[in-house]
Amino acid sequence: MTRMPVLYLSHGAPPLADDALWTDQLARWSADLPKPAAILMVSAHWEAAPLSIGATRRVPLVYDFWGFPEHYYRVRYDAPGAPELAADVRKLVPGVQQDEERGLDHGAYVPLVEMYPDADVPVLQMSLPTLEPERLFEVGRSLAPLRDRGVLIIGSGFTTHNLRELRPDPDAPPPAWSAEFDEWTDRAVRSGDVDALLDFRAKAPAARIAHPRTEHFAPLFMALGADADADAASERRSVIDGYWLGLAKRSFQFG
Q: Where is the signal peptide (predicted)?
């Protein structure tokens, strides 16, 4: 079975579906990947400790946003559950809890609608049990064997995420803080400087503006951990770049 890569992507809000460029970028990306046997999704929008996994039978959607037009609440994504993947996760990470009522939040289903529109790949969502980079990195490392079983591990966040600093003009240049943090992250990821990334609050420019709270950067650490023991030839590359209302939508592929 082909060893699957690991992804960290910027997932966008529900109106991502109206962004022709971004949806095309996500669709092209998935078309270049091997077809996964299942997807393990870690979204910025589910924090729960101890580490928890979601529904494995009927997988509902969680419309965890407010004030949007009604049609965004009618989106469907009827992906099959992934009970075998859930069992594998429980074997690899001690103390995992199961929440059969927890469906896919918008950090999970919004990009999946664009990447796998046929909803024919089993999906399991997993929580962020902490925001501490080192602990998330170790969880990711524990999950790495799933890659050899055809599982696509996706960390879904946003490379910069400060909603108070959104730029309403989509054609305006990005603010300096967003561009500086984005460029630093790109260099650190591609050079494999994991130590700097784990200490990004101290090392990255404008880190506290780019991430007043770090939940949208946190999935990157799980993705990095899942690629930590790859051989030296493992490729780290930026697949999507650019900005959305001033926020960096950069997304990475490992392996």
A: none
Tokens representing 80 are 């099959």
Q: Which amino acid is at 129?
A: P
Whether the Cβ atoms of residue 21 and residue 12 lie closer than 8 Å to each other? no
Q: pTM of the full predicted structure?
A: 0.96
Q: How many helices (H) and strands (E) does the chain have?
A: 9, 10
Ordered strands of the 151-157 beta sheet: 97-98, 52-53, 123-128, 38-47, 151-157, 6-10, 251-254, 236-240
Q: Which letter does DSSP use for residue 70 in this model? A: G
Query: What is the rounded CA–CA span in Å between residue 90 and residue 104?
Result: 19
pLDDT digit string, tens, across residues 201-255: 999 999 999 999 999 999 999 999 999 987 665 789 999 999 999 999 999 999 9
- The fold of the 6-254 domain, in CATH, is Protocatechuate 4,5-dioxygenase; Chain B (3.40.830)
Angle, CA 157 vertex, CA 181 and CA 81 arms, to 5°: 165
Does a cis peptide bond (omega within 30 degrees of 0) precede residue 117?
no
Give the max Cα distance, the chain.
48
Residue 9, phi then psi, degrees to nearest 5: -130, 150
Give the pLDDT of residue 103: 97
Sorted by where each begins, the domain ranges of the chain are 6-254
Q: Give 33-49 as a DSSP string.
A: SPPPSEEEEEEEEEE-S
In the chain, % helix, strand, coil (3-state, to 5) comes to: 40, 20, 40
Q: CA dist 224 to 36, 199, 220, 227, Å?
A: 19, 13, 6, 5
**Residue 60 identity (one-letter amino acid):** P
